[in-house]
Structure of Siderophore-interacting protein:
Amino acid sequence: MNARLPLRAETAISLASPLEVMARLRDHFVEHGTVSGTDERWTVAFDIGEAEALACDGHVRFRVAAADPTSLAYLQWGVAEHVCEFAPAEAPEIVWKGGVIPGAPLPYFREMRVLRARQITPRMRRLTLAGRDLDRFSHGGMHVRLLLSPETDVKPVWPVMGKDGRQAWPEGPRPIHRVYTIRRIDIAAGEIDVDFVLHEGNETPGANFAREARPGDVVGMTGPGGGGLREADWYLLAGDETALPAIGRMLEEMPAGKKVVALVEIADHAERQELQTKAELDLRWLSREGRPAGTTKLLADAIRALDFAADASVFVWAGCEHAAAREIRAHLHMERGLPRRNSLIAAYWRHGMAGEVENSD
């Protein structure tokens, strides 16, 4: 394995069909990294490290290597999660040698405290959170999971490392978790900004936390994660208000010389924000004018109306409601013929449903 990746962990997992599980794992990992080797022994190189699989008599030996504890823990988690997914009837026993000690705090977890809050627009509120050792949250993705108390004045338990490499939970009240974007990070000050859309309704724990947050309030955080932009000459960034924090951060980090079209669906004119960038930006606000979120085709129709080349010079990023994401994905790949590697289309939420949506491309 790569000598520049000093942190290592390994495990041997007994399986009834080692080669079958290895083949399914390889087919999955090829979408996220570079795979090399044979059916009996292969290695996959990810942005965060490497994983190696070797078929032995009745088991598969896995070795993972990374440059930092968070990346190593992610690799352990990924191997364990997908082995259990691809061999569900066996409930394989997984015990790692090396890596984080079982029961220890997760290297990708931080306990954060609210420093301050301010209103960005009538429906968007920004919380500044403080925590220690935030350097790893400055790269490898801009999304985090915030772990929120399930009830007022109840301190939840925080996840720890399980012996199989996945998260384990001590006894006690578990937090509610929601995915958000780090809008700004200041490593030296130990601060991040997170913007919250103030959704209405009872099933809105994130919005409720943002409305009521006071300095000193505690929230858990795991991460970072999520896909970003690939190198291109021309970018299309599209999303509704839930994706506006990500679009704002990507624009701020965009270098000079790039061309960007940003399509942002919002409730009304009052939700417009000042967005900064060094790139050549064509920013278009798409207002629903009173129509409920998730009930229009503003984003999909605006993308259809654009004239752009479907080639390697283009990258499209979109974050929006589930049905809109499906329509946008189908239009880009099936109608325009844009290669899948030239886009990242994420379903941030689903109309009529609370919680996260596991759907991106």
